[in-house]
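Q: I'm writing up a methods section and want to include an example of the input and output format. Could you take the sequence below and give the corresponding predicted structure tokens, formatted cleanly so I can copy it straight into the document?
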Amino acid sequence: MLHVALLATFSIVARDPKTGEIGVAVQSHWFNVGAIVSWAEAGVGAVATQANVEPAFGPRGLALLRDGKSARDALAQLLAADPEREVRQVAIIDAKGNVAAHTGKQTIPMAGHQIGDGFSVQANIMADARVWPAMAKAYETTQGPLAERLLAALDAAQAAGGDLRGMQSAAILIVDGTKSTEPYKHIKLNLRVDDSPKPLGELRRLWRVAQAYDKANEGDALTAKRDFLGASAAYVAAWQLAPEMDELLFWAALGKAAAGRVTDADRLMRQAFERNPSWRILLGRLRPSDSPGVPILQKRLGVR
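A: Here is the clean output for your methods example:
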């Protein structure tokens, strides 16, 4: 029996043993797939629930892991209580990196999963049965942070044929390994592309921008500590990661002024003004105590 929420999907759940980060990433020809398939909680684990999807597997699976169940035991308990388990596909990873996955016998081909060391890849209604092995290989051979490895797995799936119906939405969710009563404070990355003809490309763009804003946040923290040279380097690094963002251009200009590179600061701030005249107004509203770059550029650019 077919259900309304029939998600032809490829996804990956994984844990980075070096950092303890846990993540899940997904792509589907279905609107807003990230809201349905991907679930994760810091220090607890991650769940990907798809095919004839049962969204409740996400919160229920995390609750079981939170209570001390292993990934295997949590999955077994979910499936035992589900009369439609043979049309489900689900993968669970716990905080120790233990993995369990299930592809029901009645899921629509091409469907399957592959479990590796600290990860599981799974897919259904694919164009080719090479999809999930390609995901596993990409994850295992890609270097870098967990986000980069998860995105590489998604790209490999698409290169191997991907969803038979095409592309529409994608998501990536990463949490750290700290179990907490306030897990929302431990979300490392939470990006979604709900509707796009090229969701994987857009997801990678958002990942780049997210890294840039992480650097900008680092600059804010250093500014609060009055480390203006360190803050300048962070703001400039943020702008270099996402030069199209005029917000980051503005703070990079202030950072360069604070670091004594006034000519560069003047040039960048004028570019920010050209992109959006409102930055001139904001510069006039800032206090000298906000940054040593503020009075320098206010005077140099005649901003009051």
